[in-house]
Design brief:
single chain, alpha/beta, Rossmann fold, 7-stranded parallel sheet, two-stranded parallel ribbon, 12 helices
Length: about 375
Amino acid sequence: MMICAPVLASAESKWLAVSEAMRRSGTGAEDGQQSDREDARVAAGASSSLKRRATRGRAVALTGANTSLGRNIVGLLEADSTIGRIVLIDVKSPSSAGPKSIFYEVDLTQPAVESKVAEILNAEQVDTLLHLAFARPTQAVGWAHELESVGTMHVLAACRKHRLRKLVLRSTTLVYGPHPQNPNFLTEEHPLRGLHGSHFVSDKLDVEEQVRRYADDEPACCVTVLRLAHVLGPSADSYVARWLSRRFVPTAMGHDPLVQFVHELDAVAALKLALERDVPGVFNIASDGVLPISTLIKLAGRIGVPVPYPWLRRLAALLWVTQLTEEPPSFAAMLRYLCVVDAGKARRALGFRPVYSSRDAVLDFEGALRLREARLLHEAV
């Protein structure tokens, strides 16, 4: 049976709801709430079985609850009257946890975590799980693989044991990969070619394949996969945001591909919508509009520095090895080739309608960046 919540009636109400959740993400928990999470942490680490908890409303679990998107979606769920309990699974409790939240300290890279997660899901009578436990690009590729590929294997095994009703996965449009043969807009049916030499993207491809097999094996479970474009906005802190934060931004000489984003508020709204609506399948999530990289850099108030592509790759590799940048060498391909998606399916089937365009996301990012730079200058003086 489908459990649906109405789509937010207008752009204004949607913006207000998500903005309030993001405001909540900066607040700490009350002492009593912290005590509840301490109890949960002890129970999660114990070998004895947890007791099943009665609940009113749905029980939703989040892995990667302390990620940026996780903290913000927790704030929205706390304000949702249909949600009775929010089960937070991570190595650290998010600051947005409120009275509905119960925190379990779980490291998905550790052995035997499958049984622990299954025990938590059963004890909390979890109805829906949102899987957000993914790393940023890192040189610790072994650890990232354990977290994402192996960690997802453990989470899905726990879901099988628990007979989960609904699973939502946050993925990325990078699984399509930037390639010279890409059409202007990639649909969900386009082959997933990934990004050569990128462990960051190959782990995401492996996770999606695992989730696809899980959906085939568990037809009673509603499985929804959201492939998000690059998330950008005032508080964005991804490697793309760091690249765009430089005063002088390196680009690939002779290339000016189109790029697109999803505003961080719209990304949170899309995840919330996927939790509310039982619509299985894979969906591209992106803001309206695309921008040439040259326009993107100008809107961000930066200065583009064209570099011959072979030199750009070597420079990126050198900076990566010396840990002077967060952009992996494979990122250079995104400055050369097109990788933008068609988000029409999400609009039609899921009801996702972004409030912000890609241009809006860049301008919001630029405004916040300018304020941070002004504050740093003032502090220096």
